[in-house]
């Protein structure tokens, strides 16, 4: 249930309520303003929600939050800055499998933060309506996204860190029907005063970054054989993907789906020194890679004809490097790769 644009005009009130799942109510209330001197748009938010986790040591995170956000939007550019306080708690159904050093993250913690996001987009689409109907994704241009967060904890859970992520995408047309898309993402967390990085805030790589892999980087599998695979996150990561996009071969005028060939790779690590960060050989020697093909649904019929996300059905093959340094078409740890499962990937970001 939701309410929106209650007051109308320059000011408005927005709220929503989601019935309990697992006995947790999600509710939010926002006061919206577009007064120029506080930003082109502003939001004052208070609410509670539950975020589900996939292939994570926790099953979900319960968050109670108060924040203020100022946003600015111009053609091709969007930015917003948020200041807020969170009271949060990780929950799991498998507490017995949680390592002792991570148990403190499963108690209630407080967090204060300042977050800034910037998005730049200068892309072009097919000008011909027939070609656009065959392939409605960008064929030319550039997209840039960056996010920075400065956060600190309370007296009982001391932590202070700076977290930054940067994503770059480039599109090139290749004839009237094909286009090439290259995207890369890097991220890092710098803890101040040698403080510990909470599990809630660590960096994670998954099938949305390197298709086919449950998770990349530190996990419960690092300690040897384990009954339950779960990611524990890192503090530095990179991922890159190269795709050849083209209309759906079997029904090119369907207006809903396209196809792609892809090759992607990435790595996520928990590093403790600058020397480890500079170790380029290890970054590439232990990275996860996959190649494959898939179908991309770019428009969801239930939401109209406007592109509303990216929905992929892929088949891919993992590529690893064996102990002798040779490429091998398999993965050393079968727990890391969804090699026999049927899976669908949903992303609200068209450039994922």
From TrEMBL:
Entry GO terms, CC: outer membrane
Domain Bacterial surface antigen (D15), first and last residues per copy: 138-298
Pfam families: Omp85
Keyword Manganese attached: no
Keywords: Membrane
Main localization, broad class: membrane
Compartment(s) where it occurs, according to its Swiss-Prot or TrEMBL record: Membrane
Presence of keyword Membrane: yes
The protein, known as: Surface antigen, putative
């Amino acid at each position: 249930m939701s309410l929106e644009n209650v007051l109308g005009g320059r000011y408005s009130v927005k709220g929503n309520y989601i019935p309990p799942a697992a006995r947790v109510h999600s509710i939010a209330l926002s006061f919206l303003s577009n007064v120029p001197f506080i930003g082109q748009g502003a939001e004052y938010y208070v609410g509670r929600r539950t975020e589900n986790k996939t292939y994570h040591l926790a099953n979900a995170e319960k968050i109670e939050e108060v924040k203020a956000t100022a946003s600015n939007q111009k053609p091709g550019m969007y930015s917003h800055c948020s200041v807020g306080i969170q009271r949060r708690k990780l929950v799991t159904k498998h507490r017995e499998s949680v390592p002792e050093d991570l148990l403190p993250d499963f108690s209630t913690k407080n967090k204060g933060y300042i977050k800034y996001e910037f998005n730049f987009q200068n892309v072009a689409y097919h000008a011909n309506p027939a070609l656009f109907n065959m392939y409605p994704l960008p064929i030319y241009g550039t997209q840039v996204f960056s996010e920075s967060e400065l956060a600190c904890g309370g007296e009982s859970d001391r932590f202070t860190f700076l977290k930054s992520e940067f994503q770059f995408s480039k599109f090139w047309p290749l004839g009237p029907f094909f286009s090439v898309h290259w995207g890369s993402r890097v991220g890092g967390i710098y803890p101040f005063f040698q403080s510990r990085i909470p599990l809630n805030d660590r960096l994670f790589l998954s099938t949305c970054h390197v298709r086919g892999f449950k998770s990349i980087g530190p996990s419960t599998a690092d300690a040897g054989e384990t009954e339950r695979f779960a990611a524990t996150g890192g503090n530095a990561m990179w991922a890159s993907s190269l795709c050849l996009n083209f209309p759906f071969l079997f029904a090119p005028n369907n207006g809903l789906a396209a196809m792609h060939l892809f090759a992607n790779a990435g790595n996520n690590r928990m590093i403790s020194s600058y020397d480890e960060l500079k170790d380029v050989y290890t970054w590439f020697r232990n990275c996860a890679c996959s190649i494959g093909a898939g179908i991309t649904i770019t428009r969801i019929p239930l939401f109209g004809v406007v592109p509303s996300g990216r929905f992929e059905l892929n088949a891919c093959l993992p590529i690893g490097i064996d102990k002798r340094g040779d490429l091998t078409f398999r993965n050393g740890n079968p727990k890391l790769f969804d090699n026999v499962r049927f899976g669908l990937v949903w992303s609200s970001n068209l450039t994922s």
